[in-house]
């Protein structure tokens, strides 16, 4: 039996291979064989870590969540509208890293619809993200920058951003980073408080 350190190191290698497969092929391409090939190992080695594909996919979700939480993010200089803009920019596929992250999460949605555990994890993730956006909207409202109910504006902002993510993934030539940012700025301008 391998030493605990060897086991932990190998699991780290497996996690890195899972991430590379996800980034390149999405959840649809996540198979025991694909991860084994990426590792340069046999599928038998993977069965030491995962009994079946469902366990592999759930582990892949953990890896994606860890990668998302640990990735560098832009920080806003001010609260309110500026913070809302930065929170939305952080999810747009405007960098190679964000493109890979977006590919993973978009492909994950399908897997989450068929798995109660993953669906609940995704629901909780959206709730957390909308909560962050809602806090930015509430600050913007207090500063006189936006009007509207913070919860509704946060839902609309999340829907706008993820809609733009999907379109940019499918049509990157039409929606390069500069255009995504311009569309985001137009969207935010439409939310601004109109003076009475």
Brief description of this entry?
The protein is mostly helical and 196 residues long. Helices cover 73% and strands 0% of the residues. The chain has two domains: 4-68, Orthogonal Bundle (Arc Repressor Mutant, subunit A); 73-191, Tetracycline Repressor, domain 2 (Orthogonal Bundle), CATH 1.10.357.
Name the average pLDDT.
Answer: 87
Question: What characterizes the major β-sheet?
Answer: none
Structurally, the number of domains stands at: 2
State the share of residues found in helices, binned by percent. over 70%
Number of helices: 9
Query: What are the segments in which pLDDT stays under 50 over at least 5 consecutive residues?
Result: none
CATH architecture of the largest domain: Orthogonal Bundle
Give the CA-CA distance, first to last residue: 74 Å
Q: Give the tally of β-strands.
A: 0
Strand content: under 5%
By CATH, the topology of the largest domain is Tetracycline Repressor, domain 2
Supply the CATH class of the largest domain. Answer: Mainly Alpha
> For the CA atoms, what is the radius of gyration?
19 Å
Q: State the CATH superfamily name of the largest domain.
A: Tetracycline Repressor, domain 2
Please give the oligomerization state of what you see: single chain
Shape: elongated
Global structural class: mainly alpha
């Amino acid at each position: 039996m391998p030493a605990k350190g060897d086991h932990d190191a190998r699991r780290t290698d497996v996690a890195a291979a899972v991430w590379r497969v996800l980034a390149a092929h999405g959840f649809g391409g996540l198979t025991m064989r694909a991860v084994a090939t990426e590792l340069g190992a046999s599928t038998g080695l993977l069965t030491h870590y995962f009994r079946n594909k469902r366990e592999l996919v759930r582990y892949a979700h953990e890896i994606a969540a860890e990668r998302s939480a640990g990735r560098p993010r832009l920080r806003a200089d001010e609260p309110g509208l500026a913070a809302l803009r930065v929170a939305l920019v952080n999810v747009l596929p405007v960098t190679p890293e964000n493109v890979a992250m977006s590919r993973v999460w978009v492909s994950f949605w399908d897997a989450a619809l068929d798995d109660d555990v993953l669906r609940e994890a995704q629901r909780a993730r959206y709730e957390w993200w909308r909560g962050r956006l809602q806090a930015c909207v509430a600050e913007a409202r207090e500063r006189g920058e936006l009007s509207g109910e913070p919860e509704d504006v946060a839902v609309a902002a999340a829907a706008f951003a993820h809609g733009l993510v999907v379109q940019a993934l499918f049509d990157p030539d039409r929606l390069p980073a500069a255009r995504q940012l311009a569309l985001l700025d137009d969207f935010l301008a439409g939310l601004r408080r109109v003076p009475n």
